[in-house]
Amino acid sequence: MNSILIADDHPIVAEGLRCLLLKNGHNIIAICNNGLEAYNQIITRNPNIALLDMSMPGMNAIEIMEKLQGQNSSTKVIIYTMVNDVGVLNRAKELGVKGYLLKDFAMAEIEICIVEVNNGRDYFSSHLENRMTINDNGGIEDLTTLLTFAERKILSLVADQKSSKQIAEQLFITEKTVETHRRNIIRKLKIPAGNNALVLWAMKNVK
Fold this sequence. Notes:
The protein is α/β, with parallel strands linked by helices. The protein contains 9 helices and 6 strands, in the order E-H-E-H-E-H-E-H-E-H-E-H-H-H-H. A 6-stranded parallel beta sheet has the order 2-1-3-4-5-6, sandwiched between helices.
């Protein structure tokens, strides 16, 4: 019997998943409402599967997976999310995510996903947007895959025409750190020099 941890800061969603998984014979060992609690429970209780919402207080699913890298954890992570973003998906794959589901379809796909993961196969939702074109190497062709998770966060805020000061306040980092990230983004994406070049690129290319 699978031991499964559920992490979601929306109680109704978490309870719906719990009821469905219990009905299908799974053992729910913990329900967490924030990322830090989920990380600690994974480390201490070592569930077979951790079903993580992408966006939670404390730590998001990607940050949890990054911290698990140095812990030799055997827990298999399945992410379910509203985020249909190529960069986030690519980072999750780099970190060894076993399943990636979209919330709109998670209830219909979760059992299939768990079966596939238990059989040693990865499962990525069939409903991911067609713009996420898979290349021959199994990677996803998108310029933003060159960026770190933090850089992609900042790029999305730049696309919303946020100033460096506003971004710094929203992400609780210094304005100097934001400027460093902006320079790195420009360099990695090879954006030509010019006034507001990054803003214009982001507004055109970031969905």
